[in-house]
Amino acid sequence: MEDAEIVDLYWERDERAISESDAKYGVYCYTVANNILWNQEDSKECLNDTWVKAWNAIPPQRPLALKPFFAKIIRNLALNRYHMQNAQKRGGNMVLIAMEELNECVSSKEDVESAYFAKVLQKDVNLFLHTLPERDCDIFLRRYFFLENTAEIARRYGMRDSNVLVKLSRLRKKLKKYLRKEGYSV
After folding, report:
1. Exposed, middle or buried, 32 (CB in 10 Å: 0-12/13-18/19+)?
2. CA distance 142 to 148
3. Does residue 109 surpass a pLDDT of 80?
4. What is the pTM of this model?
5. Which of 17, 21, 38, 158 has the most other CB atoms within 10 Å of its CB?
């Protein structure tokens, strides 16, 4: 079923929207959550919560592409669950490692203006991603948006883990240089 047809089901408040969403994007969404949580039960709960959030968001929203719409929902749910579960323990988790890697490029101070600057920064990072070759962009997004581990990325692209680490390091340096050129102090 096409995305537009699934969205129409949501707008009609037809419960088939959820089963069609799950059939088309369930495995994908589960993988996004599991890359963050590494726990089947928690990932399944996030998946179920994704369909509830989508049900409540459509209408009034009418997303053109459901895959990124669902990815953003489940990623946020999984990150929230992750933060709740790991509030007391700050060990060497993969999510923290990935976020710490990005901190060298994108660090910010918490203040009143942070919400505005976060939006501007998001726009600028997206513009940066569009300057990259497709494979580099995909590797960057898989690591820092979908939080895939570097071994999985290496397997996907037929690379060594060390090559992925070097590639990510170079991409972070490019991002840092790009953001400096755009006027950010990083």
Report:
1. buried
2. 6
3. no
4. 0.66
5. 21
